[in-house]
Write a structure and sequence with these properties.
alpha/beta, Rossmann fold, 11 strands, four-stranded mixed β-sheet
């Protein structure tokens, strides 16, 4: 009987709390202020540090010619073959550099190296923002064993909300059906608690950042 009485007392307090309005009022929520401490480092430095921490491979290039040199080095050093690219601007660069690639749909399934652009880079999280509106579409960024992203310093933004605003401003009412971020190569520890890299996508993700906002004195 004592237990029942105690239980009733607790339930009575709960019912009273639910029916009694709090005297305090909740003020307007501030959704604009940053909750993270901003770094004084340039965005390219922040991105490089955070992306590398996530096991991403970062390469800075002063111009497109230096990108070709660096890309050729990685191709030879890693014995890369079956490079696939659909982005017109990248295809022009690769063609100028005499780098062999394919853009034929029938050769997509044999792709080992997927080369794409991105919408923007998020410095604070070291993430690559991509959408389904890009020429590369949904498949190429996740299908190939190695995902090569070519980006420019003008595409660097600080936070994810800045990236989403960029997408809204760029596409207006025609928002892409897929907006996502890539933060390093895919990995999982679902199997026997052993970390496996490249389980659900590329084994490695490279970002070649080309400087198109060079400072002058």
């Amino acid at each position: 009987m004592a237990d029942v009485t105690s239980r009733e007392k607790v339930l009575k307090k709960i019912r009273k709390a639910l029916t009694t309005k709090s005297a305090s009022e909740v003020g307007d929520l501030d959704l604009e202020s940053e909750i993270f401490i901003s770094s004084e480092e340039p965005l390219e430095i922040q991105f490089a540090q955070n992306f590398s921490t996530l096991n991403g491979k970062f390469v800075f290039c002063e111009n497109e010619a230096e990108f070709i040199e660096n890309f050729e080095f990685f191709i030879k050093d890693n014995s890369w073959k079956n490079i696939f690219c659909l982005e017109s601007s990248i295809k022009e660069i690769l063609t100028k550099g005499n780098i062999k690639f394919s853009d034929k749909e029938e050769e997509f399934m044999s792709t080992d190296i997927g080369v794409t652009l991105c919408e923007c880079l998020i410095a604070r999280t070291g993430s690559i923002m991509i959408t389904s509106k890009q020429t590369s579409g949904r498949r190429l960024p996740i299908y190939s064993n190695y995902h090569i992203v070519i980006a420019y310093t003008s595409q660097l933004l600080y936070n994810i909300k800045d990236g989403l605003k960029f997408i809204r401003d760029k596409y207006g009412s025609s928002i892409p059906s897929m907006i996502t971020t890539i933060s390093g190569p895919s990995k999982t520890a679902d199997i026997e608690k052993t970390l496996v890299q490249g389980a659900h996508g590329p084994k490695e993700v490279f970002v070649f950042l080309i400087d198109d906002v060079q400072l002058t004195d």
